[in-house]
Model the fold of this input.
Amino acid sequence: MPPDGARILANEALVEVEDLAREFDISRPWLFRVLNGEPRRIVHAVAGVSFTIPRGTTLSLVGESGCGKTTVARLLVGLYRPTRGRIRFDGTDITALAANDSARAIRRRMAMIFQDPYASLNPRWRVRDIIAEPLRAFRVLEDERAIAERVAALLGQVGLSPKDGEKFPHEFSGGQRQRISIARALSATPDFLVCDEPTSALDVSVQAQILNLMKDLQEELSLTYLFISHNLAVVRHMSNRIGVMYLGRIVELAPTDTLFEAPRHPYTRMLLDAIPDLEMTGRRRSPVGGEVPSPIAPPPGCAFHPRCPFAKARCRSEVPRLRAEGDVLVACHAVEEGRLAA
Amino acid sequence: MPLLDVRNLRVEFPTRRGTLVAVDDVSFAIEPGEVLGVVGESGAGKSITGAAIIRLIEPPGRIAGGEIWLDGRRIDTLPPERMRNIRGREIGAIFQDPLTTLNPLYTIGRQLAETMRVHLGLGAKEARARAIRWLEEVGIPGAAERIDAYPHQFSGGMRQRVVIALALCAEPKLVIADEPTTALDVSIQAQVIALLKRLCRDHGTAVMLITHDMGVIAETADRVAVMYAGRIAEIGPVREVVKRPRHPYTEGLMGSIPPLSRRVRRLAQIEGAMPRLTDIPSGCAFHPRCPRAFDRCRRDRPDLMATDGPNRAACWLHDPSSRDLACGHAA
Done:
């Protein structure tokens, strides 16, 4: 458990996101469109999401492929620019950070861990240089001896040996590579880590090692995590709060235990129902039909209505807004109208 | 008589630096209509075991020992052209990526019809009519119209349904499904698993379900074999293996899966990683990572042996002659 001081601070938001949206233009080339009379085609990858992450806690975003969770992650660390909306980090608006020194100081405080440990490490660099890159890029340390010491300490912190710094990424297994990614992410002492499916390329026993390591580091360094995953069991293990995304929107945002014990949104219920049951409680699963529609032409109204057993006329025409129900935020007309038993 | 009987299977890959043994002395059987789950982490040899049965091991890999019996007939010694008739007709296959299973140049109707014409000797008309029925059975909406569509015109989940139809349409007695739902989202995964279960039950097809996902196995399989470093570590009824694993590796594996129904502070952790095939440890391959290893584990390789339950485990802890030693070590 974190010390009391950390718990008091925990009420303060480190990251605040307001109505964040990102569109991608996937139109065919201009000439083709003119000749065929085709309109532009826009994907609304993220269509207005809002959330806050209190300091020292983990917010997870879950959802199926194409729900926009990775786009949110990339927006937060500045890999994409938002089409609309705001991002505040520790009180500062970072939506459109200029490339000046104050921007650098803020960028240093966030880092990202990617899904694929085979693609995210430069195969031509030695591990020590990979880990030292943020130190050099942000000029945290200039003296080479100090950098070497810091790299050795980081390697130890993630459970590798300081000798491993001399090796190249291909000499490591997937789990060890993810440890290297974590060491690199931590090297410039950030307080916010964006983790995009950090364990989904790993075997379960290795996943357990990495998840345990991430939790230990969070406690030790009071880190704040945005955790992106499609795996609900992993998310339950890691998070304080969970946002469920569907086609670019958050449909439910709730404290972890509340979400699992009393899911409100029909999509959340469906997701929880769909997970194979390892405990073998003999729970009957209600099969849900349909697939996630294309984000290019999302259904009007509530995007989930074509698959929703509770959909009515209003769901087909009006986009539901996120409304507070106790400590839970839900975007569902049926919940709002009390048509769903809680 | 079991439908499939694999005895002492050994698969080798000759390399410049010596011979790698990917599957080492693996024996198991599948009864008619039974679903056997095969789980393990990457490199455990589960996919290669499946590929060996349908003889789809990439050269220079080869079956170096053992016997494979299907329905009372030995099939590992059959000439390649006879084996081709067995694949598809008697053993269907479903792989992880439906795009590599389906031919992108042919309509799905043509692929289904051709399979049935070759294996069941149907005429063109009858084959097409049955293809439509199969598409309906696997839940493709508007089957009669979609039959002339190409694989790329389907979503991933729909494609995997087509692959299931393709694997089952020649009415094989056994289907080998290698990670059939790994590429799919959870909601689609649930649909595909339910479909596979229903169809195999209706048609009395036995399934060898290879996956790394213990949850899928728990829901689907009758029995499960847990593989580690090319060998079966434990085999038994799925409920026993999940609830009361008898092999320390299975125990660690189950503990490392985050539970869904409750919160745990820490996940059980198996230290280290699965050994590479180039340096499999002596004795029990799991001993360097095993919290309960004792002298004998480092020296002798355990075979599957009886335990106090219906599972069999390859672990010296279950050998009466070494039990005292093990207890002494634990104390």
Summary: DSSP finds 13 helices and twelve strands in chain A. Chain A touches chain B at residues 64-65, 173-176, 203-209, 211-212, 215, 230, 232-234, 236-237, 256-257, 260, 270-271, 273-281, 285, 287-289, 291-292 (CB under 8 Å).
